[in-house]
Amino acid sequence: MKLLILDRDGVINEDSDAYIKSLAEWVPIPSAIDAIVRLSKAGWTVAVATNQSGLARGYYDVATLESMHTRLRELVAGQGGTVGLIVHCPHGPDDGCACRKPKPGMLEQIAAHYGTELAGIWFVGDSRGDLDAALAVHCQPVLVKTGKGERTLAKPLPAGTLIFDDLAAVADQLLL
User: Fold this and answer.
1) Cβ neighbours of 176 (radius 10 Å)
2) Within 10 A of 31 (CB to CB), how many other CB atoms are there?
3) pLDDT along the chain (176 residues), means of 10
4) Is 95 one of the annotated binding-site residues?
5) What structural domains does the chain harbor?
6) Is 132 a catalytic residue?
7) Contact at 8 Å (CB) between 9 and 147?
8) Is 89 annotated as a binding residue?
9) Euclidean distance between CA atoms 129 and 173, whole angstroms
């Protein structure tokens, strides 16, 4: 199985330190949508694992979050692609859950859903928490410079982290 796991905010859509709280604030990165379409058409399953502590903070509700994910699926489907499983962590940073990145719970949930091992699977994110979650389950950590990626790049990264300008560059590499 060709599986690629993505973080959402900062990788697929523009990020905001004030949270993405509405469908209007969910602004896709056009090249990221195209990258997902290209990967999907080439036989890749593209899954998403996203921390959404805005739910715990009361900034938006699950219906609003689902509307964002529906819009993502519509944009990709409109170009002939598909998005695989989307999982989210609804907890706040101090809730002690097993799913909030850097914990690997969401990645394990994706692996269980697809009945696959995670070793060597690329997990693309823009934060140190994403990279640490990848390492916890032996995924290949991949950092994109979009979103918080440049800030993350300014600090030491885990050994072996792959670095790309954006999701389109990741797709280019995987589709060689």
Assistant:
1) 4
2) 14
3) 97 96 97 98 98 97 98 98 98 96 98 98 98 98 98 96 98 98
4) no
5) 3-175 (3.40.50.1000)
6) no
7) yes
8) yes
9) 23
